[in-house]
Amino acid sequence: ADDHFTTSVLFSAGMIQDMAQNPVVEITNVSVRAISLNGFFTDITLASLIAFDIDLSNETLTLEFDDVVKSESILPQGITLFSQPLPNSTRHQLFDSVTNINPVILAPADATRDYYNYISLATTGLAGLAAPNDDYKLQFNIGKLDLNVIKIVRDLATSATNTYLVTTENVALDVFMRNVTPSVQFLQARSFYPDYVRPNLVSFTLNLDTSIVKFSFDESVNPASLIASNIIFQNAAYSLIQYRLSNSTSTGGVLGSLEIEILLGYDDSNALKSISYLATNLSNTYIRFDTGAYLDQNENPNNPISNQSAIPASGYSRDTTRPYLVSFDLNLNDNFLSLYFNEAVSPSTLNISQIILQNNLNINASTFNHTLSPTSFVYTRSYDGIVFISLSETDQIILKSILTPYAKSVNNTYISLSKYTVMNYVNLLVQPVSAYRAVPVRVLREDLTCYATKAAVYIPDTTPPILEGFEIDLNTGTLGFFFNETMNHSSVSLPAITFLDAAVSPSQAYTLRYNGELVSPRNSENLTLLLHPDDLTYVKDSVDLFASTGTSQLSFTAAFIQDMSDNFIDAVTAAIAIQARNYQSDTIGPLLLEFSLDMNSGLVNLTFNEPIDSLYFDPDSITIQNAVYNASQSLTLLGNEGPVSVNSPSTILTFVIRSADLLILKSLPDLSTSINDTFLTHTESLIRDKSENTILATNGSITASLVLPDTTRPNLLTFALLNLNLDQLVVIFDEPMSTHTLVPEAITIHASRGGTLSVPLTGGYFVSSSDLDREVTIGFNKDDIFSLKNNSNIATLPSNSFLSTTSQLIQDNSNNFVNAISPANALAYDFLAVVPDTTGPLATDCHLNLDSRTLSLTFNDPVDPSTLSITRITLLRTNDGSSPDDSYTFQDTVLSSSPHGYTLDVTITENDFNGIKVETLVAIDENTTHISMLSDAIRDLSNNPSGSILSSSPITCSQYTPDAAPPYVTAWALDMDASPSLTIYFSETVKLDSLQLETEPITLVGLNGEYYKLTGGLFVKGLDSPQLEITLTIEDTNVIKSMLSLATYINNTFLAIRSGALLDLDSNPLQAINISSPLQANSFTSDTTNPRLVSFNIDMNEGRIWLTFDEIVNGSTLIPSLILLEHTTLPNPPLLYLTGGYFSSRFDTVTYLNLSISDLNELKRLEGLAVSNYTTYISIRQGTIRDVLSDFSSNPVTEISDTTPIMVSLFVPDITPPVFVRFSLNLTSETLSLTFDETVESTSFNLSDIRLQSSLDFNITNSTVISRYLTSTGSYPSYLISQDSTVLTVQLGQDDLFDLKRYPNFASSPMTTYLSYSDQLVTDMNSNPIIPVSAQYLPFAYSFYPDNIRPQLLAYTLNLT
After folding, report:
1. What percent of the chain has a predicted confidence (pLDDT) above 70?
2. How far apart are CA 543 and CA 360, in angstroms?
3. Which residue of 32, 723, 1234, 1274 shows the fewest CB atoms closer than 10 Å?
């Protein structure tokens, strides 16, 4: 045992056994198997400092030694900090004792030594131990003054690179009370955390007598960083009365000091003294800082002090110094006396009558003195020592008197005041200024204005005034003048003024004619007038005047104006004309004031409010209308005829309306007949003024000032057209006519001028007009037409067609009658030919009576009934051609017995009657009874064939009589295949909208008494038809398919229908088909369509899948092994073919499958499958399930490929926690196996949550119970060796095995091996935590295998120390 080589150990198998009584493996021969000494120690080494850490934010120093040292032995004087690994670098030696919890604070003077040259700097050292226990590592709190010194020295301990440490041997003792090894080299800081702690204000004092504020901080701050404007005084911790210092306040302090003084600036000191209820005593003196008010030595900004937590002053000294007058100013121009005090004074305390002005330093030597009157007005600036006194009128008169040798210069102006003149804000009286030693004035401004007094000597004013400048505003017409003295405004004479566009050789000049209007009647140096409107108009009409500042010149004679002493102004000639000081050009557009209109000549006059430029005239912008707003008739002009003229000075513009526009005006009867219906509007493009400003838009319209109405009679110019086809004639006039005054009886048609053959019209009517009502079409009545057509010698050729008229024929819109035309001067027909009667007749009305089966037709001309061809006539359903297929054309030829005339009657044959009722949807009521007609269906008496009546615009029969016979079912068909439907055929057209399927009027009848009433369905509504097709509902279809004796083939397919289930077009109810004698189907189509899977749902809790199909299926035909669950979006998608399960055997569109336990666990085990909607898809093979047919030759379900699976519709995740089933412990294989009722997630397994114990007793505080939590950490931890499964196996580590094996009554059999755990043990594949074990039902080992392995000695240690 001298060293490793002389130390071995031998032992036999009986030396020791493990807890399972297995003997240790023996060592009996050194040469065979010796265990070497694992460790051999002798204690001869002193402890050494190996590292240190410094944290200036937490104010800690941590020393780490290579051996345990005693914490109470620490001697801080043995620690010195250096900035560099050099003996003469900047350093600081700690000397505070660890037990000195409250160290002595050195005076500030001791903290101002030269740290850069001082070798052993020391302040207060450590404030106390942070971790007082003996250890390798000790942490201390650095004392405040040591901390401040470290922070002050800028090249020491600002980072790890300038932080080194040296210790002496007596810095600490080890546990054997031996000194540690002293430093042999400089040790650099292992870690350095700089000072990030913000400084805080501790207290402050305020001295208003000296204006000094003193601050105390919790650490050294940089005086130069203080920003006074971030400091706010207030009168309480939370207050609305506040004052923020200005940056005029200066700072002072010593580097490294915890205290800083500031000297309040003049404004700040005055403000604090003058604000009521702020800083008037200790109790209402608080302070707060904004962030950044100051910085510590490491440039950390201060912690802000909010308005809610201001700090109260710890000391306060009030102002005890009386204010005094420093100087004063006297301004006799502005009539102000200014007093300057050394501090702010309260203006409310000022007593003006205590102030004396005198003209000598000593009042006894003064020839004049004056005590101010109390009527003078006083005001001061905020927080200022300046008082302004506005002298009263009495004081002004006395001081400005020219007879007084006072107040003429600074040499003879003094002031004196008593102590009662004013007080400061703390009510201290001002220091008096003796009248025997008065204060001289600093500045005196002599007033040049002389006031009349009872002077012995009077010197009159004989100097003529001078115009210093003028300005003009052409928008408002304002003219302003600026003189060198007060002028007598009532003496002004504007006609003395001439405006010029240039001082030398002006091209334009205008001398004012009127005086204008005085705006400023009070006499003063400034004069403002408004130019007379006529003067302003002529000025604006002069284009070159006032076009710019350079063309804005003025000259005047001396008669222009006089001053207050009646001195005429000095005249200014054109050669030295004065240019405008300020010039505002005309920027406002002109305004139309009025207009006049002559309806005979079309002449229009426009009057404007200012001169306009006719070059910009745009007549197209004018609209003449018959009302101010919302006019019913209007005309927008299109140009003008002839030149445009303007007056002088260009305010009236005259033009003539185009002839075409004048005709349009005359054609509008309610427009421009007088000033009451003549108004004008215009756009901004109508005109511009001489300054090119566009005209101002009108608000509404302008009423005409004068309208000359139309008084000229119209003339009939042309007899233009005689048309016997249309039974019309056309006449043309020279101007628009009032067509409602037409009197056709005034016209006579002649065969020649002055001849005897003529036809005076007996009536007629107005047809139409065109060309602004100049061209009028007149319609003949029937009597006149027959008169003309019966005589071939008149109105058949242009040569036998003439027209005369009386003046009563018509009037124009101004009520002027037309000029008459005598028969001798009758107008010749002005056309190539008279249009003869070549027009065939047209049907105008019809009557249809389905009861009497007759059709009556009415025409516009007499017809010959013998020429009727009824097969060219068609009955239509609609009157617009929108349903061309809904029509019926008569088939049978019939004759009418009606005489010649406008109306004939036709009898409808039986064949046509049935065709109308059964085969079409026409002639159901008045709205569905219309006729169209092919040409030549009949001829008129002139043998002209009738014209066609198109189906797009047929004639609607004005009378209709319906049929009263009830409809019935003639046949029906049933289709049960892809789109199940029921079709019924009726004897005539029925109203489909009358069918109400929800009342179940239709019944399908089968064999063996089976029947089913339809509950609904879809059919085309809104149409009338002899055929009804119903699309069966899915519900009805599925019920019918489930009834095996109904509608499986044609022989068990019958129909019953309720009476009145439908109505025909005349509302006759349908005949019933009773269920006792149903009608067999005429056609039947069986189901040959495969069912389809449309959706599926899955519930991972219940382990159930619901499959929904598009039709009813037979659940008993389900084959689970043909179902595949998969996830399609992963690279190697997980999938699962089902192996079995329990399923429903009923007929339904929805069937379910309960998954087998193995399928459910495998589904949960597969990662990424069936964990959400987006990870759950299904595909099925054809034949997975079949639909239902009576002969069981059922259709298999359509396959869904695994490449196009469908996603789950409703996914219910697994929220059922897993359940622990049993566990096994094998101490030979050193494994622990746990079995669960479902797959669990191995990555969630928390091995350290397992506790093994020796007894069922859940209370582990029982001393007889041995327990052990498995550990997953340490040198030999346990670990999981299986993946996701229902069984998890743990490989036990030596740390856990030692505890399990060392107790004889613990883990020695199943009954000494119990297991407990919490819900943190494991989760299933859906993260559901396991149900924790109950305290009353701790499980014991399901199987147990004891320890059969013999122990071995691994190592041993000999420690002689």
Report:
1. 89
2. 66
3. 32
Q: For the chain, give the mean pLDDT.
A: 84
pLDDT at 113: 30
Distance CA 1085, CA 1104 (A): 37
Find out whether the peptide bond into 649 is cis, omega within 30 degrees of 0: yes
CB 1049 within 8 A of CB 1005: no
The rounded distance, in Å, linking the Cα atoms of 47 and 71 is 13
Neighbours of 928 (CB within 10 A): 23
Cβ neighbours of residue 36 closer than 8 Å, sequence gap 6 or more: 4, 8
Give the span between the Cα atoms of 1019 and 997, in whole angstroms: 10
Question: What span, in angstroms and rounded, lies between the C-alpha atoms of 222 and 219?
Answer: 10
How does DSSP assign 523-586, residue by residue? Answer: -SSEEEEEPPHHHHHHHHH-TTTTSSSTT-EEEE-GGG-EETT-PBPPPB-GGGPEEPSEEE--
Distance CA 717, CA 722 (A): 15
Residue 964 CB-density burial (10 A; 0-12 exposed, 13-18 middle, 19+ buried):
exposed
**Integer-rounded Cα radius of gyration of the chain:** 62
805 in Cβ contact with 699 (< 8 Å): no
Q: Read out DSSP for 608-643?
A: ESS-EEGGG--GGGEEEESSSSS-SSEEE---EEEE
Of 1165, 1167, 1140, 1168, nearest to 1154 by C-alpha is 1140
pTM: 0.36
In the DSSP assignment, the letter for residue 379 is: E
Say if residues 389 and 339 touch (Cβ distance below 8 Å): yes
- How far CA 776 is from CA of 743, 812, 823, in Å, comes to 12, 12, 21
Confidence of residue 383 (pLDDT cuts 50, 70, 90): low
CB atoms within 10 A of CB 523: 14
3-state SS assignment for residue 1103 = coil
Contact 1165, 1325 (CB under 8 A): yes
Which residue in 388, 165, 198 sits closest to 301, CA to CA?
Answer: 198
Give the residue among 523, 527, 547, 425 at the shortest CA–CA distance from 467: 527
**Region 95-115 average pLDDT:** 32
541: nearest Cα among 594, 505, 499, 603: 499
Could you count the other beta carbons within 10 Å of the beta carbon of residue 263?
16
Q: Judge residue 803's burial from the number of C-beta atoms within 10 Å of its C-beta, 0-12 exposed, 13-18 middle, 19 or more buried.
A: buried
Contact 1286, 1237 (CB under 8 A): yes
Q: What SS3 string covers 1302-1353? A: CCCCCCCCHHHCEEECCCCCCEECCCCECCCCCCCCCCECCEEECCCCCCCC
Q: Determine whether 924 is exposed, middle or buried from the number of CB atoms within 10 Å of its CB (0-12, 13-18, 19+).
A: buried
Side chain identity at residue 447, one-letter code = D
- Give the separation between CA 795 and CA 759, rounded to whole angstroms: 10
* Residue where the block lists tokens 């006579």: 748
